[in-house]
Specification:
Blueprint lengths: L8 E4 L9 H10 L5 E6 L11 H10 L4 E6 L7 H6 L4 E5 L6 H10 L3 E6 L17 E5 L13 H16 L4 E5 L7 H7 L3 E4 L1 H4 L4 H8 L4
Parallel strand pairs: 1-8, 2-3, 3-4, 4-5, 5-6, 6-7, 7-8
Length: 222
Amino acid sequence: MGQPVKPVKVAPSLLAADFTRLGEEVQEVERAGADLLHFDVMDGVFVPNLSFGPVVCQAVRRVSALPLDVHLMVTKPEVLIEPFAKAGAHRLSVHVEAVTHLHRVLAQIREAGMVPGVALNPLTPLASLDEVWPFVGFILLMTVNPGFGGQSLIPETVGKLGRLARIREQVAPHVELVVDGGVTVDNAPALRQAGADVLVAGTAVFAEADRQRAISLLKGGS
Ligand SMILES: O=C(CO)[C@@H](O)[C@H](O)COP(=O)(O)O
């Protein structure tokens, strides 16, 4: 018999929400069983797209009590730490590929009252996390190239997640593993089995009329 699979959390990615009714969309996924709200910040440099920033985060904060999981896809994350802390973010991840002084940046995130996380692009080696474990609350493993919602999950990233989960078990069992990009009801069982604690899902939640069913299926329910 294999390992029992732990319950997984679902974090709808607001990038896939209808921005003309963002407040209602947020409240709907909260009622539908979302555990966190995932907030993708893009600067048009680190990734070839622009999204939203602290002002929108603050507005979301006013309509939901869910923890806000902010993913910075930007070249200078250090300048956004304080603004996102003030905007009510609970967790903040920065890309290992974007930051030179990662130890300092992770300490600044913690000092600002948020849970620090490190995000990894699909082909960034897991070895880049070797020194990071004591300083983070979570690792965000990108399962698509960041920048856009609605892409297909890169199949090789499932094996990478499995290897990451085995390392995590050895060195830092308390650190959460978050997967992000191309998550669907079809690939969610493999991601849960491989060790994901949190599934970030944009299209798989917001493109569905029945968000409650979508979130329940992602968690392995009916
Ligand atoms: O960070 C990103 C994209 O850069 C993700 O959070 C996507 O927004 C997830 O959207 P889907 O792939 O689930 O539609």
